[in-house]
Automatic annotation (TrEMBL):
<feature type="domain" description="N-acetyltransferase">
    <location>
        <begin position="2"/>
        <end position="154"/>
    </location>
</feature>
<dbReference type="InterPro" id="IPR000182">
    <property type="entry name" value="GNAT_dom"/>
</dbReference>
<dbReference type="Pfam" id="PF13508">
    <property type="entry name" value="Acetyltransf_7"/>
</dbReference>
<protein>
    <submittedName>
        <fullName>Putative acetyltransferase</fullName>
    </submittedName>
</protein>
<keyword id="KW-0808">Transferase</keyword>
<dbReference type="InterPro" id="IPR016181">
    <property type="entry name" value="Acyl_CoA_acyltransferase"/>
</dbReference>
<dbReference type="GO" id="GO:0016747">
    <property type="term" value="F:acyltransferase activity, transferring groups other than amino-acyl groups"/>
</dbReference>
C-alpha cells in the first residue's frame, strides 16, 4: 500500500533522490528538478510538499511540490503551480502519481486556493481537471502552450488572466 503524507525533516535527502531518479531519463527535463524543490523550500515557497511512502518497505517512492505563481498585472494570491511531481521509475504506472496529484489538490482546496497551474502532458493531467486555458499564458518561450494547464479550485468568479511566472527557484541548478 502507498501512503501519502506531508514531507518531514528526515525525508529531504530521500525525496530529492526520488526526484532525481524520476526525471533522469526524461528528454525534456533540465535534470535540476531536485534542486528546484530544495530552492523552493529554502525560500519558504514550498506551499505543499507531499511524499508517497511504500508501507511495506517504508521507502519514499514519490514526491510532489506546490508553490505560489504570479500573474502579471493582477492580484494572484491563491494561485499555485504544481510540480515537480516525481515517482520512482520502478513504481510508475501503479497509481502513485495520481494519488499525489489528488492529495496536492485536496491540500490546496483546504488552503482556499483559487487555482493551480501545471506544465506537463495533458494526457496525464486532464484526468484531474487541468485544462489548457488560453487566457493564462506560460511566461517561458518555446513550450507548446497546450502543455500548460489550469484547474479552478474554488467557486469564486475570479478568473486569472495573463502571463504566469514561476518563482526564481525554478532556475536553481544546484
Ligand atoms: C508522471 C508521473 C509522476 C506519473 O506517475 P505514475 O505513478 O506513473 O502515474 P499513475 O500510475 O498515477 O498514472 C499513470 C497514468 O498516467 C499516464 N502517464 C504517466 N506518465 C505520463 C506521461 N509522462 N505522459 C502521458 N501519460 C502519462 C499513464 O499512461 C497512465 O495512464 P492510464 O491510467 O490511462 O493507464 C511519473 O511517470 C514520473 O515521475 N515521470 C517522470 C517525471 C515527470 O514526468 N514528472 C511530471 C512532470 S510535469
Amino acid at each position: 500500500m502507498v501512503i501519502i503524507r506531508r514531507e518531514e525533516g528526515g525525508d529531504l535527502d530521500e525525496s530529492a533522490q526520488v526526484t532525481e531518479e524520476a526525471f533522469r531519463s526524461m528528454k525534456q527535463s533540465s535534470h535540476t528538478e531536485q534542486f528546484i524543490t530544495n530552492a523552493l523550500r529554502r525560500n519558504g515557497l514550498l506551499s505543499v510538499s507531499l511524499v508517497a511512502v511504500d508501507s511495506e518497505s517504508n521507502k519514499i517512492i514519490g514526491h510532489v511540490a506546490v508553490s505560489p505563481v504570479t500573474v502579471e498585472g493582477q492580484e494572484t494570491k491563491g494561485l499555485f503551480g504544481l510540480g515537480p511531481l516525481s515517482v520512482l521509475p520502478s513504481h510508475q504506472r501503479c497509481g502513485t502519481g495520481s494519488q499525489l496529484v489528488n492529495a496536492a489538490l485536496e491540500a490546496l482546496r483546504s488552503m482556499s486556493a483559487i487555482g493551480c497551474v501545471v506544465l506537463g502532458n495533458p494526457k496525464f493531467y486532464n484526468r484531474f481537471g487541468f485544462q489548457h486555458t488560453p487566457s493564462l499564458v506560460l511566461g517561458i518561450p518555446g513550450i507548446p502552450q497546450e502543455y500548460f494547464m489550469f484547474i479552478h479550485l474554488d467557486s469564486s468568479a475570479v478568473k486569472p488572466e495573463g502571463t504566469v511566472h514561476y518563482s526564481s527557484a525554478f532556475d536553481a541548478t544546484q
